[in-house]
Amino acid sequence: MSTFSPNESAQWFASLPKLALSANAVLRDPHGRVALVRNTYRDGWSLPGGVVDDNEPPAVACVRELAEELGFVAERLGPLLAVQWAQRSDGSPVQFLSLTFDAGVCQAPHTLRAQPEEIAEIGFFEPGDLPRGTRPFIARRLAAIRSAPGTVVYLEETWPPDGATPL
Which Pfam families would you find in this protein's record (predicted)? Predict the structure, then answer.
């Protein structure tokens, strides 16, 4: 059996496809409405969450993002609800993978506080009546989650290079 030298191993890892990983959450209020956020740096409504840091487990990233963006402390996350893979239609080498977790119910949504550097607005919306401007892949993800309760849904997306990302 042969083994890679440290240099060969580094070269092999460098040759792997580039993947941006994000973790986000479905957080509900006591009435079953879903929390969406409007970011300061892009258009549209999205689920709270963000990019997973180096060597950070996705569930840990999701809990961190909820605390950073909303001031919500998730005692523990519920099950994984969705996996969504995406690529750009222009041949960009970066792929995106987003994991959506169930963050449970926020019993006191009025106590949530938007992080002003990233979050312009927080809102709770009926899952079947999302606001105008909800990012299309978020709307499709939420619809898939609603249509398959108790399972993990898997979605694939290719989107035009308009500057938006599916994270």
Answer: NUDIX
